[in-house]
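Journal club prep, shared notes

We agreed each person brings one worked example of a sequence with its structure written out as tokens. Mine is MipA/OmpV family protein. I'm keeping it raw so we can talk through how to read the token line rather than staring at a rendered picture. Sequence first:
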Amino acid sequence: MNPSQLLLRWRFMPIVLPVFDYQMENGLFASTLRGIGYRGDIGNFDYSASLNYRPERKSKDLRDSQDKKGTLKGMGNVKASMVADVGLGYRLTDYLSVNAQMNLPLTEDKNGNSMQLGMDASLLQTDQHQIGWNIATHFADSKYMQTYYGVTSRQSEKTGLKDYKPRAGIYAVSTELSWRYGGTDGWSLTTKAGVAQLLRDASKGPLIRRKTEPGAGLMVAYTF
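Then the structure, token by token:
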């Protein structure tokens, strides 16, 4: 769940997307979700680095205070960028781990950097069932905050919105509960439900229509 998407009013919008995830035994992986990269571990530590993609934000998708689309085109589009995802985790017990992840743009660096600190807990693990819980705190630099939550003087002139310069730092918290059911035939079913909450300056900007966003997902996978 990406808190930077909490700019639109929440709506139930079912979307079906194919997911490809290939993991090699030597740690290399290629995935439509994780990008292309490497994951390894040393003792209780695990680490990863990958090349990924941060999608474009189109101004025509933003909603004004009347919940109408298309009236804030003066905000301009936020261009998509290639990013480096760097992660480091530490396993505290067999059931609990902590992690840090950074999202660093390699192109369009003016869009800014983001980071999250999280904790993952394994609530149940059997041959067929896995239940997990995650909680994370999200941080960003001033460029990221201005790009996704701020309004420049030029954007203000074009849209009528008030100038807004949010500060760097903590901007959101999120939590997610997941359940995976897998058989011996290679098929598995994963369901997820979570919520993200904007905080501090990110929650007060003129672009924000909703501070809290629930989310849910269902994934059917085949492993071979």
